[in-house]
Design brief:
The structure is a homodimer. By secondary structure, chain A is α/β, with parallel strands linked by helices. The first copy, chain A, has three domains: about 80 residues, Winged helix-like DNA-binding domain superfamily/Winged helix DNA-binding domain (Arc Repressor Mutant, subunit A, Orthogonal Bundle), CATH 1.10.10.10; about 240 residues, Aspartate Aminotransferase, domain 2; about 100 residues, Aspartate Aminotransferase, domain 1. In chain A, the strands form four sheets. In chain A, strands 4-10-9-8-7-5-6 form a seven-stranded mixed beta sheet, sandwiched between helices. In chain A, α11 links the parallel β7 and β8. The radius of gyration of chain A is 27 Å and the shape is elongated. In chain A, about 50% of the residues are buried. Chains A and B meet through α5, α6, α8, α9 and α12 of A and α5, α6, α8, α9 and α12 of B.
Chain lengths: ~475, ~475
């Protein structure tokens, strides 16, 4: 690369002082965002100094800084070229040698040595959590003198959950509610109760991986229908009919991982398709309360279009409230609710009483929780989106109106490699294939935005490094070629 | 029945006053304890008066009282005969017509209209529960700012559990512990992880019904070995070997439901048999901390005889602490613990954080909990045993040295009928066949003694009625015959 070429990429010299430090930072930025490919031979110091109109000493100092930071390597007679900075070991054993490591050097991770986990899309508890815990503890003595087993869930919690559905236009009695030990447990119970091995189940692609796991364990035949660009209900209806599906699993509200929100007309059509195909529609409302504008009108629940007990709704406290509360629930017909209660006892007998009381308190103040979540998730979403646009401008994504994740298209079918490299570089993300049935979606990663903006920024910096690393792989590192 | 015959049964006239009331009470007692069979024609008033040396008015008043209470029916020209008092409807729909009901009368249940549930052997929380909850709530903020998922369980709880095993002579590291959402969940996880459909599993007969349910769901081939009279390890070893068992499930401490305690020598022999048969020994210590004399020397844990990772131990907070806490755990090798953690995530992700913190606090004060449980269970055991000896003297049982239940042999293969009748009469008990693999054990019922002594007494009174009812069934009620 010639001096003038790099000078153009740099856009001249920054006004920051000292100049050498500003120059080093700018070159680092070009490496991080990919405009300066790895293994690019840098211009000779005097050529770049001339092109930028700075002293050769300044460029020498900048290259020294970049060498110290691990972005440049030099060898006598071969000049200098761009490289990745050194890596830290992730909690998991790295699968390959660290790229900087083979040259015998060890640098710290640029900013922060803390491992960032974007694998798990779940936030800490809301600020009123302590008050809800205190109120629940006050209630506890009413229960703790008895055996503590309520396989269907505490009546007082089921009442509040039923009232919540009624307020959303779905009249519901408490005997239509089964409290479960989290949404995943709810899904496992439904799979065990509604599905036999070999039954066809229509699932979204991408969708929640643990739901796929529960269905696979049950021996279901999975029939995926793509939702990357939103729902195509005619396609879903055809899949249900042709596969004689026993069940379809859908996440209509801020779909995990795409963030899509199903329009009301599609909801009506999907319920109608379920009726015609004689299939249960299991609808997962884990994210339904997580609109980024909590005052925006909500889409009607899928169950509001149902008259035949065909829609079975899963709710959860884990995302809206806290994952350390293991409480979810199922809304269905009273007869199926009774079957589910019988089916749950051999699994885990009942759900924890104190958690149920806490969730009840939080549901009674759900508007406060929704407002707090909306504010912090919107901040996180925008910080993540901003960092991606700056550092990984090739990645494409929609800005979701709710939920907790961006679903980013990374432009090449290397998501698994990027996730592996990112793990070594100190950030965990889940690659697209995990959300699919059949190993596709290799050009996507899910990026939750529940962590603080600064942490998200740092995570994206590491992801950018991971991408550079993947782009330079898998060939053994060659000597730099002139670009 | 002649006047003198009944007078002999009555043992004369009580010194209580009024005489008619004492006479009525005595006749009622004879009906309740079965010495006076149902449908027995009572002597004419004048005959009984003469035999007892009381006035005919007194006998008339006593018969009137018995009619009012529902123990005697009369018809002009046919005299008077013994019957069962009226019944109340249980929460469950009764399966047959109420015996008193067809005569159009409605009486209250003799003493108390509250339904007594002896189906579930689990007590309320111990007295230090509130303090443990408060301490746990103080700890909670350290966790509630994070995601709250710890699939293996909180490190601080696993440490305390591991220390508990070490104190019992089984050195244990925290990475050998997996915290589960109750013992039943632990058993389900082990079944899913260790067993394939068709594998043989040796189980005790009788044993914990929900364990049988989990194994059946997994498609295991169940091989029962009787333990009504204690363990015969040679028999168990032979069964393991002949069936090529993959697993044996045992409850060596105050076995559920028999209350038996396995001697140390049998424990050593059983572990040796497992080794020779190459089978896992899953040992359920749910009741191990429930000795009625908490200072008595304890039998060594099964795991203390194991050197090859063959013994897998299940622990639970539900019985010792409170069933409303859904916390159990598994102790095994670190590699199998890792497999179990992977297997648990698709079920329920993780266990509730607050419950884990509460259990940790209670485990740190476990000696206090054990002492309190011992005192109240011993009181309950003796009250139950006393009432049985008085009102159901034909029932046979051993007095267990720990646990929560008597295993009573009722003298005829009618346990299911007795349980059904008892349900209609306001007490739920579990009949023997529920604890077995193959419909045997029809001459046993399990009687937990976790409820207060007065309630247990009332429960036995209702059981006595249920037995009388069963003895008089199933023929349609005939007109009374002279005995």
């Amino acid at each position: 690369m010639s001096g003038p070429h790099l000078a153009r990429l740099l856009g001249g010299v920054s006004s920051e002082r000292p100049v050498y430090a500003a120059l080093a930072r700018s070159v680092r930025g070009l490496v991080l965002d990919g405009r300066l490919a790895l293994r690019t031979r840098l211009p000779a110091e005097r050529d770049l100094a001339a092109a930028l109109g700075v002293s050769r000493t300044t460029v020498t100092a900048a290259y020294d800084r970049l060498r110290d930071e691990g972005y440049v390597e030099s060898r006598r007679g071969a000049g200098s070229w761009t490289v990745l900075p050194p890596v830290r070991m992730s909690p998991a054993e790295p699968r390959g040698a660290a790229p900087g490591g083979r040259f015998g050097r060890a640098h710290p991770v640029p900013d922060d040595a803390t491992f960032i986990d974007l694998g798990c899309a779940t936030p800490g508890a809301p600020s009123i959590f302590g008050e809800a815990v205190a109120a629940a503890v006050d209630e506890l003595p009413r229960y703790s003198s008895g055996p503590g087993y309520e396989p269907a869930g505490l009546a007082s919690l089921r009442q509040v959950i039923a009232d919540g559905y009624a307020a959303r236009g779905v009249p519901t009695r408490p005997d239509q509610i089964v409290v479960t030990t989290g949404a995943q447990h709810a899904f496992t119970l439904l799979s065990e109760t509604l599905i036999e091995a070999g039954d066809a189940v229509v699932v979204e692609r991408p969708t929640y991986p643990h739901a796929l796991g529960a269905l696979r364990r049950r021996g279901a035949r999975l029939v995926p229908v793509g939702v990357n660009e939103g729902w195509d209900v005619e396609l879903a209806a055809g899949a249900m009919r042709q596969a004689a599906a026993r069940m379809a699993y859908t996440i209509p509200d801020f779909q995990n991982p795409t963030g899509q929100l199903m329009p009301a007309a599609d909801r009506a059509a999907l319920v109608d398709a379920g009726r015609r195909a004689d299939a249960f529609l299991v609808t997962d409302e884990t994210f339904a309360d997580l609109a980024h504008d909590p005052r925006a009108p909500r889409e009607p629940p899928l169950a509001s279009f149902d008259s035949g007990g065909r829609v079975v709704t899963i709710g959860s406290a884990s995302k809206l409230m806290w994952g350390g509360l293991r409480i979810g629930w199922i809304r269905t017909t009273a007869p199926l609710a009774r079957r589910l209660v019988l089916a749950r006892e051999p699994f885990d007998m009942a759900s924890p009483v104190l958690d149920q009381l806490i969730v009840r308190e939080l549901l009674l103040r759900v508007e406060e929780v929704r407002a707090e979540r909306a504010e912090s998730l919107l901040r996180g979403r925008d910080a993540l989106a901003g960092a991606l646009r700056e550092l990984l401008p090739g990645w494409e994504f929609r800005l979701p109106a709710g939920g907790m994740s961006l679903w980013a298209r990374i432009g090449a079918p290397v998501a698994t490699l990027v996730a592996e490299a990112a793990e070594r570089l100190g950030v965990r993300v889940v690659a697209g294939p995990v959300f699919g049935v059949d190993g596709v979606l290799e050009d996507y990663v899910r990026l939750p935005y529940v962590l603080p903006p600064d942490t998200l920024r740092l995570a994206v910096e590491r992801l950018a490094l991971a991408c550079r690393e993947v782009e330079s792989a898998p060939a053994a590192r060659p000597l730099p070629a002139y670009v």
